[in-house]
Amino acid sequence: MEVKIIPQLVDNYSYIIFSQKNFRALIVDPSEPEPILSFLKEKNLSLEGILITHHHSDHTQGIEEISENFDT
Fold it and tell me: What is the tens place of the pLDDT at every residue in 12-32?
């Protein structure tokens, strides 16, 4: 398993937990979808789920757009 830290907004981070062996990934707290989607595509990763630590929009506002690109 590996973890990729993705800067989000001005002062936040999202995390992608992934395996290069089985090409599966989990996302934690996505607020800006584009850098996350780009990384998943670049690494040919299948999104298995999205984890949210709390409900504030700076941790959740990217969920809808990311979900539209995957069957999660």
Answer: 999 999 999 999 999 999 999
Residues 6+ apart with CB under 8 A from 21: none
Q: Is the pLDDT of residue 57 over 90?
A: no
CA angle, residues 30, 16, 41, in degrees to nearest 5:
90
Residues 6+ apart with CB under 8 A from 13: 5, 6, 7, 29
- Indicate whether 70 pLDDT > 90: no
Residue 1 burial class via C-beta count within 10 angstroms: exposed 0-12, middle 13-18, buried 19 and up = exposed
Interatomic CA distance for residues 31 and 28, integer angstroms:
9
